[in-house]
């Protein structure tokens, strides 16, 4: 990856996949200061889970507690020492919409995100988060392919 350090705020959405991990490392190489990098994980809202799921004790789980656990997982997951200065956030909802909203709210200059490279029927059925972000974002979006 070409390294050019700029005073820009970059957002990397993560789903904790190896591709997203690499996007975080690539973005760390591009920012002048690691605190210019934001990493966002979008999780499904609790309302999307079946109420009758016996494996989940609903009254003990809050979105705040979920967000804290997700951030703890991220902090343990990314081993690069520069990652400790990264802003990490958790949102609940539809991934593309939450990524675009976060970027606008935080005046992000560029979004860098992996594409899982699905095509054909899988892409048609699952949709493409990267494609929806590219279409709706107010800023440039770099989509990294494997």
TrEMBL record:
Q: Write out the GO MF terms.
A: ATP binding
Q: Which domain of life is it from?
A: Bacteria
Keyword ATP-binding belongs to the record: yes
All copies of domain UspA, residue ranges: 8-145
InterPro entries given for it? Rossmann-like_a/b/a_fold, Universal_stress_UspA, UspA
- Keywords in alphabetical order, please: ATP-binding, Nucleotide-binding
Q: A Pfam family for this UniProt protein? A: Usp
- Family designation: Belongs to the universal stress protein A family.
Its protein name is: Putative universal stress protein
Q: Which organism is it from?
A: Posidoniimonas polymericola
């Amino acid at each position: 990856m070409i390294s050019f350090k700029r005073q820009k705020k970059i957002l990397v959405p993560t789903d904790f996949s190896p591709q997203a991990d690499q996007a975080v490392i690539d973005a760390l190489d591009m920012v002048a200061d690691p605190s210019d990098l934001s990493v966002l994980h979008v999780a499904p809202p609790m309302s999307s889970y079946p109420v009758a799921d016996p494996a989940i004790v609903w009254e003990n789980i809050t979105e705040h507690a979920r967000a804290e656990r997700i951030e703890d997982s991220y902090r343990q997951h990314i081993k690069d020492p520069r990652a400790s200065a990264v802003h990490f956030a958790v949102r609940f909802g539809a991934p593309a919409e939450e990524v675009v909203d976060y970027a606008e709210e935080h005046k992000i200059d560029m979004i860098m995100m992996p594409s899982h490279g699905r095509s054909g029927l899988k892409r048609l059925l699952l949709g493409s988060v990267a494609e929806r972000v590219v279409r709706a974002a107010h800023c440039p979006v770099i989509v990294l392919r494997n």
